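Retro notes (design track)

What went well: tokenization of the new backbones is finally stable.
What didn't: we kept losing track of which sequence belonged to which structure.
Fix going forward: every design gets posted as structure first, then sequence, in one message. First example under the new rule, 251 residues:
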């Protein structure tokens, strides 16, 4: 296995970090790699916030679903879907009948931001650093907009916590679903009931009937814990609030 594949396959989410600041050289190496990420039309429809301030990290640890480890991370990177920069440039260029960014522009910028984030993840891993994605940055739009100084056409797509691996750290690798259920040839294949049972059979082995949700199977448990949770509802509310700015109106 070549070094790139080794980096991909050994990576796991890391929530406990060595108590060592990330060196400026390593940070710049990560950022340089990030800026080489694929991007739509070479427009680079994203921005990256480098968060070192402890007070800001403390706030994020609370606003992002109360996760204390965020505050303990040596470094936080926030990847922003950013159409503000191009919109301002279009106005400077006196584009005629200029419309404000639309939802399609937001989705394209989200693509750019996520691709950049994953590039940063692999760069960090190659330097002996672990990372953890924090999707909860999409929640509490109004709070995060004020905290991070975000203009109308910028949305926080993803957040990463970063830090060096602790000494003698032993990763725990979680199984992925078999490729036969995820990879489709040519067209989408809707899984039947028996295939769904087979796909989730290993996951269901970990189900405990003694759970706080009163769930009687893994599907009910996962829905209560994730998809139907209060933080999932807040994320949808937050995104709807942000979408009010992305309606494609004529300026």
């Amino acid at each position: 296995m070549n070094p790139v594949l080794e980096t991909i396959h050994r990576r796991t989410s890391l929530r406990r970090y060595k108590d060592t600041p990330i060196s400026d050289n390593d940070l710049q190496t990560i950022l340089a790699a990030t800026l080489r990420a694929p991007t739509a039309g070479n427009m680079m429809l994203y921005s990256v916030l480098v968060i070192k301030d402890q007070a800001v990290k403390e706030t994020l640890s609370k606003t992002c679903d109360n996760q204390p480890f965020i505050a303990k991370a040596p470094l936080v990177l926030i990847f922003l879907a950013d159409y503000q920069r191009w919109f301002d440039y279009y106005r400077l260029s006196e584009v005629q009948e200029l419309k404000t960014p639309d939802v399609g522009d937001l989705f394209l910028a989200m693509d750019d931001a996520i691709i950049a984030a994953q590039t940063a993840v692999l760069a960090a891993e190659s330097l002996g650093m672990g990372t953890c994605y924090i999707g909860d940055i999409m929640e509490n739009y109004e709070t995060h907009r004020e905290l991070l100084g975000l203009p109308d056409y910028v949305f926080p797509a993803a957040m990463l916590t970063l830090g060096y691996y602790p000494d003698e750290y032993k990763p725990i690798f979680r199984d992925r679903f078999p490729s036969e259920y995820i990879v489709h040839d040519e067209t989408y294949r809707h899984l039947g009931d028996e295939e769904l049972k087979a796909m989730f059979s290993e996951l269901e082995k970990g189900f405990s009937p003694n759970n706080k949700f009163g769930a009687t199977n893994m599907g009910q448990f996962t829905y209560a814990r994730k998809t139907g949770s209060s933080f999932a509802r807040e994320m949808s509310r937050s995104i709807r609030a942000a979408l009010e700015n992305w309606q494609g109106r004529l300026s």
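Added context from the reviewer: The two ends are 53 Å apart (CA to CA).
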